[in-house]
Amino acid sequence: DDFTDYQAETATISQGVVESNHAGYTGSGFVNYDNVTGSYVEFSVSAAAAGAQSLTFRYANGTTTDRPMAITVNGVTVATGHSFPGTGAWTTWNEISVNAPLNAGANAVRATATTADGGPNLDRLRVSGPGDTEKPTS
Ligand code: GCU
């Protein structure tokens, strides 16, 4: 394999809580973002070499309203308000991916809610390199 998973429940959380009341998450739980603009989860991602990587966020949104989030890497905006649309149920987890350049060594990958609804429930971040041949679907 050529990916590394980072669980949201062990990341840095600002305005959110770790919960485990909706099945289907990986690890020991997920982050329930507070329903406010600016709530975020920040992952510390280690890269062996500088270059573009795929950042895949696994999430659930049991509402029918989009929960867009800004994605930044080391403070640089990668996506201003990436869509995290409804998944149909809080127990249905989908993935969205963005590509972003990482530095060699530690990188701060942050997903920040851009609306007053806050973010979706966030399970994990999967980081995969350009040589990855596995589909990040589970
Ligand atoms: C419900 C759900 C939570 C979710 C919240 C929300 O309370 O149980 O898991 O985070 O809605 O709308 O953000």
TrEMBL record:
Residues 4-128 form the CBM6 domain. This is Glucose/arabinose dehydrogenase. It comes from Nonomuraea roseoviolacea subsp. carminata.
